[in-house]
């Protein structure tokens, strides 16, 4: 026999599922932009132009898309921003 509590829990679970689907649909363009940007960073790294990948670069690319990814790579190429730190390459002996 199904109780009122079980029905309430089921209703709350369905509500959370529907809200979760709405949130994922709203975030889908940002997720796609971030993945495309990370692929651009990977290809740039293959060609010898490494980019510092952190939360800021991913956020910039997620909002700006492919043009922002190209801009981040160009800024890194010219040493203006998003340049990988030398400490990672040298180690803790500096």
Q: Could you explain the architecture of this structure?
A:
The chain is 74% helix and 0% strand. The relative contact order is 0.11. The radius of gyration is 21 Å and the shape is rod-shaped. It has 94 residues and is mainly alpha-helical. The chain is built from four helices and no strands. The longest helix is centred in the first third of the chain and has 43 residues, at 4-46.
Question: Percent helix among the residues?
Answer: over 70%
- Look at the helices and sheets and give the structural class: mainly alpha
Quick one: how many beta strands? Answer: 0
The secondary-structure element order is HHHH
The DSSP helix count reads 4
Shape: rod-shaped
Low-confidence stretches: none
- The radius of gyration computed from the alpha-carbon positions, rounded to a whole number of angstroms, is 21 Å
Q: Output mean pLDDT.
A: 88
Distance between the termini: 70 Å
Work out the strand percent. Answer: under 5%
Reported for the largest beta sheet, the result is: none
